């Protein structure tokens, strides 16, 4: 069991010291990859002093699928369905990030209606991602099942919307460079509006369930504190960064899509602990609902696809582009280098959950094993995106 | 007072528990094999080939151009083009696929074959009960299993099929400008009845 840990740390710690320390002080535990709370096949090598974590090394790669290399060997269009499989909770935002970078690369305009649809779908994705995250996090804390089922009940309504629009619940493959694949019917928009109008009721209920709960407060406040300085230097993005009080949201910073047209606020945390990270999601959902309501009012009629774009045998000009969006988990970017052929020369994903996860050790040191699970849950990872 | 937060949460669970017995919104279980929830119009699963007229062999729209084979991201389509030409459903001599296989254990239902097909020959099916007892040949669907009629297409995707028919009728009318003032080029929004062409 301790083999992996020693391999990683061979330079720092000679094995002789390890064996002598094992007698009474540090115990090495390999948590995962088949652990119910690790959100997929994720392993941590933890050195424990009693119940306190003294060292923690994340081990990635169990779900590595060669995503970037596949992207370099298929056409630009062919990579689109693969992006669904990165963060399979948020396939719509993955599609958008990839479409955005190809559009930057080839200088493609997107029709107005398609941009609005993208905003609507991205915010719906944010709603369902954050809702299920809260459910999973409570599940990690021992509220086994019940809050998760409440969250999944709401998520299912949004996934039904995705299914009736794109044909698939999770592997939507909906956006294309130059727009969206199919148009949303007025009935679909009406249904989406109804789902969004009902969402605050669920949020109120969920907040009643968690916000004041003394057990939850005891488990999360002052646990896994992250300082703004460390967060910035480690490249943390998304709700995790904003929970430390850093005002950085790509929707505001970059103003991609039509986000500058919407009025919304960026919730910020103060302490950067697990409780702040948890509440950040609840508050962001409120803002997403505000954006959605504005988008439903403003959405114009018109085409959803730029007619000039040929998706078959698509060859962008030579160049490079980096497109990034504020995915529910953080900054999701695609970096593409084109050599003028039908495949990208280089295809690189900047996955938010992977980079947010690299800081796990700093968050967990000094806390108990039980807290590690809660902290990991609050980071919000999906292994499909971490390992690619 | 300590404990109020927990009590508040308990009230939520209690309300949900009671509600799960009579609130219609919460009684959502569908007894699957006997009852089925309807699939949305846009639902997609695996591709199939469309044929017009009654004869699956003669009416196949596919001309074995191999574009879908080339564009398919997981490379699950395998086509062998015929050496000879034979008249298609419109009487024009065309190549046809001698072999057209789709390995549905590889297919990821991404719909790219449908989007790139210039002949509207391949479309997405809605059948999902495809489990078999074997791993290999049973999951590789050949031309015979894949060919399905245009009427079937209309029954699963009525709106989309009507649009496709209108588009094909328009293209056929354009090709034959001599043939009278080209039949009503079907209104785009209204669904047109399946034309047997």
Task: Please tell me about this protein's structure.
The complex is a heterodimer of chains A (388) and B (197). Chain A is 50% helix and 13% strand. Chain A is built from 17 helices and 8 strands. Chain A has helices at residues 3-9, 15-22, 67-73, 76-84, 91-106, 112-140, 146-166, 186-210, 214-220, 228-233, 239-242, 250-253, 274-298, 352-357, 360-364, 369-379, 383-387; strands at 26-31, 43-49, 52-59, 175-176, 179-180, 319-327, 330-338, 344-350. In chain A, the strands form 3 sheets. Chain A has a 3-stranded antiparallel sheet with strand order 1-2-3. A 3-stranded antiparallel sheet of chain A has the order 6-7-8. In chain A, helix 6 (112-140) packs antiparallel against helix 7, helix 6 (112-140) packs antiparallel against helix 13 (274-298) and helix 8 (186-210) runs antiparallel to helix 13. Chain A starts with a helix and ends with a helix. The relative contact order of chain A is 0.18. Residues 1-8 and 13-21 of chain A have low confidence and may be disordered. With 197 residues, chain B is an alpha+beta fold. In chain B, the strands form 3 sheets. A 3-stranded mixed sheet of chain B has the order 6-1-8. In chain B, strand 3 and strand 4 (93-94) form a beta hairpin. In chain B, helix 5 packs across helix 6 (158-175). Residues 179-197 of chain B have low confidence and may be disordered. Chain A binds chain B through residues 74-75, 77-82, 146, 150, 153, 160, 163-168, 171, 173, 181-182, 205, 208-217, 311-312, and chain B through 2-6, 8-9, 11-13, 16, 26, 40-44, 67, 71-73, 108-112, 115-116, 124.
């Amino acid at each position: 069991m301790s083999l992996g840990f020693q391999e990683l740390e061979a330079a720092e710690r000679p094995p002789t010291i390890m064996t002598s320390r094992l007698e009474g002080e540090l115990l090495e535990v390999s948590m995962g990859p088949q652990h119910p709370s690790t959100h997929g096949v994720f392993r941590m090598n933890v050195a424990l002093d009693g119940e306190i974590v003294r060292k923690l090394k994340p081990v990635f790669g169990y779900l590595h699928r060669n995503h970037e290399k596949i992207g370099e060997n298929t056409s630009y269009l062919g990579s689109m369905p693969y992006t669904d499989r990165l963060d399979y909770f948020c396939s719509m935002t993955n599609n958008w990030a990839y479409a955005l970078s190809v559009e930057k690369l080839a200088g493609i305009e997107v029709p107005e209606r398609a941009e609005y649809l993208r905003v609507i779908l991205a915010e719906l994705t944010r709603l369902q991602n954050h809702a299920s995250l809260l459910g999973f996090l409570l599940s990690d804390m021992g509220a086994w099942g019940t809050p998760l089922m409440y969250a999944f009940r709401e998520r299912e309504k949004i996934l039904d919307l995705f299914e009736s629009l794109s044909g698939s619940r999770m592997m939507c493959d909906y956006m294309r460079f130059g727009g969206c694949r199919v148009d949303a019917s007025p009935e679909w928009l009406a249904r989406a509006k109804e789902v969004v109008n009902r969402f605050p009721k669920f949020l109120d209920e969920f907040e009643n369930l968690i916000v004041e709960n003394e057990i939850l407060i005891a488990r999360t406040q002052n646990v896994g504190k992250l300082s703004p300085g460390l967060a910035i230097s480690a490249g943390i993005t998304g709700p995790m960064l904003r929970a430390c009080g850093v005002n950085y949201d790509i929707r505001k910073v970059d103003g991609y899509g039509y986000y500058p047209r919407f009025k919304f606020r960026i919730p910020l945390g103060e302490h950067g602990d697990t409780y702040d990270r948890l509440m950040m999601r609840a508050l962001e959902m409120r803002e997403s609902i505000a954006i959605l309501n504005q988008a439903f009012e403003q959405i114009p009629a018109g085409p959803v696809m730029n007619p000039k774009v040929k998706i078959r045998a698509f060859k962008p000009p030579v160049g490079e582009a980096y497109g990034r969006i504020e995915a529910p988990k953080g900054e999701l970017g695609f970096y593409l280098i084109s050599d003028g052929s039908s495949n990208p020369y280089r295809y690189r994903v900047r996955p938010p959950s992977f980079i947010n996860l690299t800081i796990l050790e700093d968050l967990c040191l000094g806390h108990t094993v039980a807290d590690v699970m809660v902290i990991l849950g609050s980071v919000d990872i999906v292994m499909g995106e971490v390992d690619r | 007072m300590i404990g109020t937060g927990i009590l508040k949460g308990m009230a939520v669970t209690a309300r949900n528990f009671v509600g799960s017995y009579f609130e219609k919104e919460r009684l959502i279980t569908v007894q699957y094999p006997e009852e089925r929830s309807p699939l949305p119009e846009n639902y997609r699963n695996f591709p199939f080939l469309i044929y017009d007229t009654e004869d699956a062999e003669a009416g196949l729209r596919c001309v074995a151009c191999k574009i879908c084979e080339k564009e398919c991201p997981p490379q699950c389509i395998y086509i062998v083009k015929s050496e000879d030409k034979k008249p298609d459903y419109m009487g024009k001599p065309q190549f046809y696929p001698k072999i057209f296989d789709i390995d549905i254990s590889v297919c990821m239902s991404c719909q790219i074959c449908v989007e790139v097909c210039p002949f509207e020959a391949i479309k997405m099916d809605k059948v999902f009960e495809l489990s078999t007892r074997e791993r290999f040949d049973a999951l590789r669907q050949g031309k015979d299993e894949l060919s399905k009629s245009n009427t079937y297409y209309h029954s699963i995707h009525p709106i989309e099929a009507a649009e496709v028919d209108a588009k094909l009728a328009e293209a056929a009318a354009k090709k034959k400008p001599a043939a009278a003032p080209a039949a009503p080029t079907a209104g785009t929004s209204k669904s047109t009845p399946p034309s047997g062409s």
